[in-house]
Write a structure and sequence with these properties.
22% of the residues are buried. Helices cover 64% and strands 0% of the residues. It has eight helices and no strands.
């Protein structure tokens, strides 16, 4: 729904869903960024391939680990730094059906959030409000991070950094395709994380291979 509203606010104009209206090339930051060539086609292809390989390896490790290791005790002591991070265990899918549903949500979130935060938000901050260059990227990334406050302070900082990277991909490629793909892959990693439910882990270990 948020993506539909964002598209409606942009008048369903495809041209506004590209980086061209942001006129980053006319700013000092944009000229510096372009001259650095921080992200090119080869780097993006390598990044995408690395993420896919990482997801596959995580899946293999999870499947082997849950059969080889004993289930964690529900009363086991947590390290001190765990107290600084909110418990997102209930958000992690456990069963195959939950993982499939989570994967569908991850893909839809990757598409919708990019339309809203990289497409509509950056255009709105630039055109009506007049922000450009570094200020545009910093504020856009900060607002993206702020929307992840449910993940605690570490989550906000992580999302802000991810938002800056996604902005860089958007500006470099000129389209939302690259940030959408990367965003989906980042979210999909949760679908292969080990179960956070000790009882369910014990049940899975008792299942025949």
């Amino acid at each position: 729904m948020s993506a539909v509203l964002a598209l409606a606010a942009l008048g369903f104009d495809k041209a506004k869903l590209t980086a061209a209206p942001l006129q980053m090339g006319d700013t000092a930051f944009g000229r510096w960024f372009s001259s650095q060539k921080l992200i090119d086609t080869g780097a993006m292809a390598g990044l995408g391939a690395g993420l896919v390989i990482g997801l596959v390896l995580m899946s293999i490790v999870r499947l082997r680990g849950r059969r080889a290791k004993p289930a964690a005790s529900a009363t086991a002591a947590n390290p001190w730094w765990r107290k600084l991070v909110p418990d997102v265990g209930p958000l992690i899918p456990n069963t195959a059906r939950e993982r499939l549903l989570f994967a569908a949500v991850a893909v839809s979130a990757g598409i919708c959030e990019e339309v809203v935060f990289r497409g509509w938000l950056l255009f709105t901050l630039h055109t009506p409000l007049g922000l450009s260059g570094t200020a545009l990227i910093l504020l856009g990334s900060a607002l993206f991070g702020f929307c992840h406050t449910y993940q605690g302070v570490p989550g906000v900082f992580g999302a802000t950094a991810a938002g800056a990277l996604l902005c860089a991909l958007y500006i470099t490629t000129g389209t939302l395709l690259a940030p959408i793909v990367l965003h989906c892959l980042i979210d999909l990693r949760v679908a292969v994380l080990p179960s956070s439910n000790p009882q369910l882990q014990a049940q899975l270990q008792q299942e025949p291979s």
